[in-house]
């Protein structure tokens, strides 16, 4: 190997030296012109612990007629919208929007409503379609699956 500064053949191990911001391999004489750098430590090969298989959490969906179910249950208990909002720590406007069908509650809010009103508006979704898709698409997408290729 040759010295990157003077060009002489290096006998033995070259010195890794930082001279004016550049790191280069130099002979013993030229290495004195800069700061000698230590060789980077090679990373040890680490063992990767096997992870337990990921459990897929069940998917939930809010019932189609959630707004009627919530309104009927609230009225059956004799509560106003303000009363219901206070009990589940939400704004009255949220209750108004849910009951009018303008807002679909997320699963967390729907569970709150279920607990306080003693109704069922959250449904578990069967995930057969996504499992079939995953089984047929094991190799993953390729650019050919996405792009339209013009042949001339």
What keywords describe this structure?
single chain; 152 residues; alpha+beta; 7 helices; 5 strands
Describe the main β-sheet briefly: 3 strands, antiparallel
Instruction: Please tally the β strands and state the result.
Output: 5
Q: CATH homologous superfamily of the domain at 59-125?
A: lambda repressor-like DNA-binding domains
The largest sheet has its strands arranged as: 2-1-3
Level-2 CATH architecture of the domain at 59-125? Orthogonal Bundle
Shape annotation: elongated
Overall mean confidence score, pLDDT: 81
CATH topology name of the domain at 59-125, in short, is: 434 Repressor (Amino-terminal Domain)
Helix coverage percent: 25-40%
CATH class of the domain at 59-125: Mainly Alpha
From the helix content, strand content and strand pairing, which structural class follows? alpha+beta
Q: What are the low-pLDDT stretches, counting only 5+ consecutive residues below 50?
A: none
């Amino acid at each position: 190997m040759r010295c990157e500064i003077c060009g002489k053949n290096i006998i033995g191990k070259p010195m890794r030296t930082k001279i004016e911001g550049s790191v280069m391999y130099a002979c013993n004489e030229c290495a004195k012109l800069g700061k000698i750098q230590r060789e980077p430590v090679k990373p040890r090969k680490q063992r990767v612990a096997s992870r337990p298989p990921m459990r897929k959490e069940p998917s939930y969906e809010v019932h189609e007629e959630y707004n009627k179910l919530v309104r009927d249950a609230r009225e059956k208990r004799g509560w106003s919208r303000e009363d219901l909002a206070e009990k589940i720590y939400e704004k009255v406007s949220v209750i108004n929007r849910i009951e009018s069908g303008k807002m679909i509650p997320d699963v967390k809010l729907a569970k709150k409503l279920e607990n306080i009103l003693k109704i069922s508006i959250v449904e578990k979704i069967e995930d057969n379609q996504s499992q079939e898709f995953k089984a047929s698409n094991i190799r993953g997408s390729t650019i050919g699956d996405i792009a339209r290729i013009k042949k001339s």
